[in-house]
Amino acid sequence: MELYHSSFPPIVTEETETLILGSLPGAESLRRQQYYAHPRNRFWRIIASLAERNYTEDYKLRIEMLTALRLGLWDVAARAIRPGSLDSDITGETPNDIPLLLKGHPNIKTVIFNGRKAQALYQKYFTGTEGIRYIYLPSTSPANAGFSFDRLLSAWRSAVIGQ
């Protein structure tokens, strides 16, 4: 029997201007029911740095930092088969209705892909929405060991703050 993993609801507010799309939650995120819960994933450390706040393990405070930056968060895949946490193992995916989310949140003008798999999945199922800017950023995953934290932060800062 194949095990399907499901994504979480989107984190968006009426003020969200940039939507960050991942691929699908990994095993630790599913266990904790939190986006980017793996302790070696650098996503929340990057968000804390962009918000000029101290890194915290408190998920509620993490979400507050994210939304204060007018950032939203979701995954391209609504559900998929994923035996572990590697993006390369995702198969049989069903996408989330991202165009509907964008239509319902007209302040979103930028979509950022957190890694190549998120971008590839999006391009597999959707065409770009007029008036939306799409940006690929290197993955914050620990599997992306080729990017140091400082190099990741620089790329993310340019895309998020430098808009």
UniProtKB/TrEMBL annotation:
It comes from the Bacteria. The keyword Hydrolase applies. Residues 9-160 form the Uracil-DNA glycosylase-like domain. Its EC number is 3.2.2.15. It comes from Candidatus Aphodosoma intestinipullorum. Gene3D superfamilies: Uracil-DNA glycosylase-like domain. Pfam families: UDG (PF03167). Transmembrane segments: none annotated. InterPro entries: Hypoxan-DNA_Glyclase, Uracil-DNA_glycosylase-like, Uracil-DNA_glycosylase-like_sf. This is DNA-deoxyinosine glycosylase. Keywords: Glycosidase, Hydrolase. One of its GO terms (molecular function) is DNA-deoxyinosine glycosylase activity.
